[in-house]
C-alpha cells in the first residue's frame, strides 16, 4: 500500500502497470488495500479471542473492538481534513476499514452461514445502482464490508500456534478462495466490471479470492517450516502506524508544503520511493518497539 501510494507522490509520469484506481481496469496495485481490509477481519477474530482469554466478557470484548474501530474512523477523518485543508467530516481509507470492522464486530457471534449470507447479500446490493466511490462516503464503503467478513470467517478457524491445524486451515482458506473466485466470475459474466473505485461486486469477490489465496499460500509456506523474517512481521503488525506516518511525513509535505513540485523521472523516482518506503517502515518498527503504535 505504501509503495502504491508513493508512486503517485514521487513519479512525474506513472507507468501504466504501477497505476491504480483507474475505473474498469484491473491493475496489480488495486489489490493491496482490499487485501488489508480482509486481514482486518482476520485480526478481529484474534482480538476478540485474546480478550476472552483475559477474562473479559464477550460483550466487553465487542465494545472494546467497536471503540477501537470508531477511533480509527475519527483518526481517518482528522488526517483527511488536515490534508485537504478543509474543516468538516470526510471519508477515506481508514474510515472504510473502521466501518467494515464495526459491522464485522456486530456479526462476530453469528454462525458462519449467517456471516457468509450477509457478505453475499452485500455483493448483490453493490452490483449496480448503489455503487459509488468507496472511499468517498459511508454508504458506498459498505461495498468493501464483504472483505472484512471473509477475513472474520477465516480468523475464526486460524490455528492458534498449532502447526498440525494448519492443514485444515489451508483447506478452509482454499475453499473460500474458490467460492469467492466463482462469484467473481459469475458477476463479471453477467456484465459487472471489475472496478475497485466503485467496489463492484465482481471486484470485491475477486479481491476476497486473492486475499484468501494469499493467506493459504503463506500458511502453506509456514506449514513447511519456513519462518517469515522478524522485520516483515514487525512491519505487518504495525501497518496502521505506517499508514498514519505516511500522511504526516510524506503526504502533508507533498500536498501542503510543496504542492507545485514537478516530481521525478522514473529511475530517480523509483529510488526515492524505495528509500522512503524502507525508511518509513524502519521508523514504524522502531516506534512499535517503544510501544508507540496504532494497533490493528
Secondary structure: elements and pairs:
Blueprint: H1 2-10, H2 32-53, H3 58-84, H4 93-106, H5 112-125, H6 138-141, H7 145-157, H8 166-189, H9 201-223, H10 230-237, H11 239-257, H12 266-289
Helix pairs in contact: 1-12, 2-3, 2-4, 2-7, 2-9, 3-4, 3-11, 4-7, 5-7, 5-9, 7-9, 8-9, 11-12
Note down, in words, how this protein is organized:
It is a single chain. The protein is mostly helical. The protein has two domains: 1-28 and 228-296, no CATH class; 31-227, no CATH class. Helices cover 68% and strands 0% of the residues.
Rg from C-alpha positions?
19 Å
* Overall domain count: 2
Low-confidence stretches: none
Secondary structure: helix percent: 55-70%
Cα end-to-end separation: 15 Å
Largest sheet descriptor:
none
- The overall pLDDT average reads 93
Q: Structural class of the helix and strand makeup?
A: mainly alpha
Shape: globular
Oligomer: single chain
Number of strands: 0
H/E element order:
HHHHHHHHHHHH
Share of β-strand residues: under 5%
The total count of helices amounts to 12
Amino acid at each position: 500500500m505504501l509503495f502504491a501510494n508513493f508512486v503517485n507522490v514521487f513519479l512525474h509520469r506513472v507507468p501504466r502497470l504501477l497505476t491504480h484506481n483507474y475505473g474498469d481496469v484491473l491493475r496489480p496495485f488495486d489489490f493491496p488495500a482490499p487485501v488489508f481490509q480482509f486481514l482486518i477481519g482476520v485480526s478481529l477474530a484474534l482480538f476478540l479471542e485474546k480478550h476472552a482469554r483475559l477474562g473479559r466478557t464477550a460483550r466487553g470484548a465487542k465494545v472494546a473492538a467497536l471503540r477501537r474501530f470508531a477511533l480509527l474512523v475519527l483518526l481517518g477523518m482528522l488526517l483527511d481534513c488536515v490534508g485537504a485543508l478543509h474543516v468538516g467530516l470526510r471519508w477515506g481509507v481508514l474510515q472504510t476499514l473502521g466501518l467494515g470492522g464495526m459491522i464485522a464486530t456486530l456479526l462476530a457471534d453469528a454462525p458462519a452461514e449467517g456471516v457468509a449470507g450477509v457478505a453475499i447479500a452485500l455483493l448483490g446490493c453493490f452490483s449496480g445502482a448503489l455503487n459509488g466511490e468507496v472511499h468517498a462516503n459511508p454508504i458506498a464503503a459498505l461495498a468493501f464490508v464483504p472483505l472484512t467478513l471473509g477475513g472474520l470467517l477465516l480468523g475464526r478457524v486460524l490455528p492458534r500456534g498449532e502447526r498440525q491445524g494448519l492443514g485444515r486451515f489451508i483447506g478452509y482458506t482454499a475453499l473460500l478462495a474458490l467460492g469467492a473466485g466463482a462469484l467473481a466470475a459469475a458477476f463479471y459474466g453477467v456484465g459487472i466490471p471489475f472496478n475497485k473505485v466503485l467496489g463492484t461486486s465482481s471486484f470485491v469477490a475477486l479481491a476476497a479470492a486473492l486475499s484468501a489465496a494469499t493467506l493459504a499460500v503463506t500458511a502453506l509456506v509456514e506449514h513447511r517450516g519456513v519462518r517469515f523474517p522478524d522485520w516483515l512481521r514487525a512491519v505487518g503488525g504495525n501497518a496502521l502506524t505506517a499508514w498514519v506516518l505516511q500522511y504526516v511525513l510524506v503526504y502533508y509535505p507533498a500536498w501542503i508544503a510543496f504542492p507545485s513540485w514537478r516530481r521525478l523521472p522514473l529511475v530517480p523516482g523509483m529510488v526515492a520511493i524505495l528509500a522512503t518506503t524502507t525508511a518509513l517502515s524502519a521508523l514504524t518498527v522502531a516506534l512499535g518497539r517503544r510501544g508507540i503504535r496504532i494497533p490493528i
